[in-house]
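Review box. Two proteins, two foldings.
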Amino acid sequence: MVVDTLENGDHLPKTPFTEAQFVDLWKAYTKKLEKDGERIMASIMNADVPKTKGHLIMLNFPNEMMKAEMLKLRTKILRHFREELNNYSIDFEITVSEQTASKFAYTPQEKYAKLVEKNQALAELKKRFKLDL
């Protein structure tokens, strides 16, 4: 069953699903996007593990750009999950948390600092081989 709009799905099925089922489907969809060459969208979807609250899928992104990109493809993504889970009341609730942004490193120096936090041997490697960033 294909539903072209997201409005008024009152008469459509609302089969219950668990958070684990949704997360498994989310991960599979992300892998499909990567395989299909849609790496940016897959990366955005990998930025957060969704939580479910009834029929709402709660997402928290580190910036407005990621939220905007997710909203651009909202119809396509929701259609996929609604059909797979046979629940046409599924919807997203997306928040932006600036605190989450600190998890992401953008410059080479920030990336290096994050890697050193995870493995101190990297600093020794950089020093021993006189490597630059």
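Next protein.
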Amino acid sequence: MCLLFIAWRPQRRQPLIVAANRDEFHGRPALPAAPWDDAPQIVGGRDLQGGGTWLGVAAPGRFCALTNFREPSRPLPGAPSRGALVSAVLRSPQPLADVLEELSARIDGYAGFNLLAADDQGLWLLSNRATPALQALPPGIHGLSNGALGADWPKVRRGKRRLAALLEPGEVPIADLFALLADEQVAPDAELPRTGLDLAWERLLSPAFIRHPQYGTRCSTVVVGEAAGDLRLVERRFDAAGQPSGQSDWTLTPDGRARREAP
């Protein structure tokens, strides 16, 4: 993932709300969000190159996703796929806090990342660019892109403000979350992060939704957790021109049954 907003326990009816964009090279192969053949209690996409995933949900009531750090000056050739960390969290039968504690002891060999994971007990950040590496986060709205939690990137700031406004009336429509993710506003040069890329690329990557024939927003995903424990995951996919190319819509029940929702 390259942009992720999460509202944890913002209200009783929807105790978990996630809106996220995956930005990636269009040539990198991946499977659409669906129940996994080898773990049907998990719903998410699958990275066919690295073998992991960028975002998924698992019964009962577990969410996990990851954003990469944009740090071109710190290449790490041969590092393991960071998506394997998300898979490990989703597959583990251990309590979420325990599996994250175990993972925190072996994250130094990975390129920079932020991993967010939540269930009905808590919301945690695991990052090998933060101190401490594992942190419990409070209820509320959090936003991440390719930098540290709390970094004042324009698209993160704007998205958090829009999500807060959506929460004010109560239940948040899924269509409004996708509209938030479709924002193509380019940030002013003076507000761009300085990550080591040239100015043209910093501009290109500054909107929430990125269009480029080689690298751009491959999918937008919304996850909504219901008070009854169901998790609904809706993924919209896009081609190299930024045009819609497919959608997945699944509800995962607390006992691990995945139900495809009608289009």
